[in-house]
Amino acid sequence: MKRALTFFLFPLLLVFFIACSEREEPKSLHIGTWESKVFVDSLNYWVIETLEFTSDSTFNIQTTVRLTEDGDDLGYRNILMGDYILNGRDFIYFIEEGFRMSRFYTTSEPPFYVPKDQLRPFLVDFSEPNGPTELMFFEGQNQMEISYECPSFDGNCPITKIYVERN
User: Fold this and answer.
1) What percentage of the chain's residues is helix, strand, coil (to nearest 5)?
2) With 50 as the cut, is the pLDDT of residue 128 above it?
3) pLDDT value at residue 2
């Protein structure tokens, strides 16, 4: 009986030690998908900015339009992709590729959004990084606040955006 118990417990203990010997690094708070949602009264649309951070220091931002806050996306306004550096609360990002509506700056005229395949590439200035901006977490770590610098072409941009982690 002792011998049978030994043959049973030994493999079980071996599996336990092997499984516990690999240390997983804790996931950084910013890794994942985040959304900033704004209702535009004059258009009766929700504008959703989805920000996805990956563990390999790349990011993707896409701006979509919805009829309801949590409904399906009707279409796209833009998509930006690039790399980022996060050092404490300093967030520096480098946009490498961008796509937008062909009439992006004339939002008062239709269309306010287009299908993804109708987005067009636009020139991205690779000479300098964007930022640094400040990134902070709060509300049990499922909300993130990013304070963006305002681009020179748009003095009316929101400086601070609140993103909620998407499940």
Assistant:
1) 15, 45, 40
2) yes
3) 55
Q: For residue 71, tell me if it sits in a domain.
A: yes
Q: What is the CATH number of the domain that holds 135?
A: 2.40.128
Is this structure's pTM higher than 0.70?
yes
Domains in the chain, number: 1
Share of the chain above pLDDT 90, in %: 34
Write out the residue range of the structural domain in which residue 141 sits.
Answer: 29-165
Pick from 22, 20, 70, 29: which is nearest to 46 by CA?
A: 70
Residue 3 maps to a domain: no
Query: Would residue 52 count as lying in a domain?
Result: yes
Q: 71 pLDDT exceeds 50?
A: yes
Report the alpha-carbon angle 164-154-59, nearest 5: 40
In the block, tokens 């305002």 appear at 150
The answer to whether position 100 is within a domain reads yes
Name the residue type at position 154.
D
E strand spans, 5-159: 32-40, 45-53, 58-66, 73-87, 90-100, 120-121, 130-138, 143-147
DSSP letter, residue 6: H
What's the mean pLDDT in 109-134? 78
